[in-house]
């Protein structure tokens, strides 16, 4: 008999500051929840936008300060990008996979494949003057650190997901995706462990739990000037765990299994 899944709820967290380098995200979350008359509960998942993690970790770069190499000039010529942006993308990438005028598809140093190595100027102070925001150096480590601080402050077991909006090779539009994760099942492998409605064992079903949670939360947080870069997900405690776990990197398809090149 199937076990009923509890109702899932997601709400954006209001009252957060404009984050700057060195500012504690965990403390800001606790303060905002307290002001709303709420608090973290065991099994909660805090989904946090990548941008505020990068801001708190001081991951801003002024493009004008970058030293340009010949590879950057060549990439800029091939894609119509500014050479400084091309240099920043190269600096953050392990591999340039598809240089294109619409987007430079790169394998980030963390292993994630995305447009422009995740570099962005939207919602960044000084973005019009060439200041851009890079991804955290290690998003999984960032998630673990925030989770540790939250749990020490509240005494309850929670999970943390760091999310960014990413495109997909054969679809239009972006979807919230987990780039950092702690305390949450990243992949739920149902192969041979569950059956369909007719009793047949599932053969290929691996559920991207962390990405699904990130996508749901991203809809609530918004993509523009909403000013709500954190969302609280409840009802998903069945996927949370005491250990930090292997992180979002465990959901990356190994390069040797790449079916699209």
TrEMBL record:
| GO MF annotations, alphabetized | coenzyme F420-0:L-glutamate ligase activity; GTP binding; metal ion binding
> Keyword GTP-binding: yes or no?
yes
InterPro entries with a match to the protein in the record? F420-0_g-glutamyl_ligase (IPR008225), F420-0_gamma-glut_ligase-dom (IPR002847)
Task: Respond yes or no to whether keyword rRNA-binding is given for this record.
Answer: no
Every copy of the Coenzyme F420:L-glutamate ligase-like domain together lies at 16-235
Q: What UniProt keywords apply to this chain's record, in alphabetical order? A: GTP-binding, Ligase, Magnesium, Manganese, Metal-binding, Nucleotide-binding, Potassium
| Organism domain of life | Bacteria
Task: Identify the PANTHER family for this entry.
Answer: COENZYME F420:L-GLUTAMATE LIGASE (PTHR47917:SF1), PTHR47917
Output the NCBIfam families linked to this UniProt entry.
F420_cofE (TIGR01916)
Q: Tell me the protein's name.
A: F420-0:gamma-glutamyl ligase
Native source species = Novosphingobium barchaimii LL02
């Amino acid at each position: 008999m199937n076990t009923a899944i509890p109702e899932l709820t997601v709400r954006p967290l209001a009252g957060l500051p404009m984050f700057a380098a060195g500012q504690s995200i965990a403390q800001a979350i606790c303060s905002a929840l307290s002001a709303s008359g709420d608090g973290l509960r065991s099994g909660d998942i805090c989904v946090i936008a990548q941008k505020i993690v990068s801001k708190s970790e001081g991951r801003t770069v002024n493009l004008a300060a970058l030293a340009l190499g010949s590879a950057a000039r060549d990439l800029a010529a091939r894609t119509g990008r500014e050479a400084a942006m091309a240099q920043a993308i190269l600096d953050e990438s392990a591999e340039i996979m598809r240089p294109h005028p619409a987007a430079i598809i790169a394998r980030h140093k963390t292993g994630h494949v995305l447009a422009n190595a995740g570099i962005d100027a939207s919602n960044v102070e000084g973005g019009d003057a060439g200041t851009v925001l890079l991804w955290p150096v290690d998003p999984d480590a960032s998630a673990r650190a925030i989770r540790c601080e939250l749990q020490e402050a509240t005494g309850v077991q929670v999970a943390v997901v760091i999310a960014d909006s990413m495109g997909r090779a054969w679809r239009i539009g972006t979807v919230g995706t987990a780039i950092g994760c702690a305390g949450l099942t990243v992949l739920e492998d149902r192969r041979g462990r569950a059956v369909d409605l007719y009793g047949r064992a599932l053969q290929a079903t691996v559920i991207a739990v962390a990405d699904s949670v990130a996508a749901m939360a991203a809809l609530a947080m918004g993509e523009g000037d909403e000013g709500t870069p954190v969302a609280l997900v409840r009802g998903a405690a069945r996927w949370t765990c005491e250990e930090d776990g292997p992180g979002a990197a465990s959901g990356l398809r190994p390069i040797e299994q790449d079916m699209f090149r």
